[in-house]
Amino acid sequence: MAVLCLIGFPGCAGIPVQPPAPPFSPQKIAQILSGIKEQESEVDTFFSSGKLMINANGSESESDILIVGTKTPLRVKIEVTHPWGRPILHMLVNEANLYILSFPEKRCYLGSLGNFGPSWLFPKHLEPDQLWSLVRGFPVLRKHGQAVSLKGNQITLLNQKAEIVQIIYFCPQSNLPRLVSFPERNTKIFFSNYQIENDICYARDIRLNDPGTSSDLSLNLKRRVFNKPIPEAIYSMKKPADFKTLPLK
User: Do residues 123 and 114 lie in contact, with contact meaning Cβ atoms separated by under 8 Å?
Assistant: First the structure.
């Protein structure tokens, strides 16, 4: 844990400008990746609440958000509401299956995670590990055959064909992940305002960016509870009788 999380260190803010850092050594790469893998095993379930901010096509919106998640099998329930309590969207990911209740439209959308294009419903094309990184507040390492450091404070993961599958950028001094890039889909997830609770390191502020779209999604998670039992009933979606069911495209 000392590799990744320095007690009381909030992130990258306040660090004086330094000369360019050299690439990580193979030993340092192994040490840092071992710490990230350790964090992957620290969290099985979580409950979070806070704010969701979406900036799309020049307009901004802010809503309350509640997120509940289980790692294995992957299940994530998201409820988005207006600040005065009216529901906007309920989303359930159950492994690869995706269910969305859009209350303004009175529609129920059914589809698969990662197989729908950007929309106001959830403005990014996410795969399961990317979704877990976003809602858990800490990156997940993608399967890879090799890890290299091409410049300072950065680790690049390559597959067996030497293709880049993931690039992780780190805050100087702390080795905390500040940005994870997925070149295949040109998607980036930013992490900041780190906290530590019972050896669990997590970011309170997470931002999702896809330069291929005109939208940004930001989470400011104010309350987080880890590894508590989650009632099965939480992972249920009851469609109102007047909602129309449509495939998610």
Answer: no
Hey, CA dihedral for 80, 202, 236, 97, is it positive or negative?
positive
CB neighbour list of residue 94: distance below 8 Å, 6 or more residues apart:
73, 74, 75, 235
Query: Among 4-8, 23-27, 127-131, where is mean pLDDT lowest?
Result: 4-8
pLDDT for 2: 45
Helix, strand, coil content of the chain in percent (nearest 5): 10, 45, 45
Please check whether residue 128 is in contact with residue 223, taking contact to mean a CB–CB distance below 8 angstroms. Answer: no
- Burial of 220-240, coded b for 16+ CB within 10 Å and e otherwise, reads ebeebebeeebeeeebeeeee
Number of other residues whose CB lies within 10 A of the CB of residue 214: 12
Strands 59-70 and 87-94: unpaired
Does this model's pTM top 0.90? My answer is: no
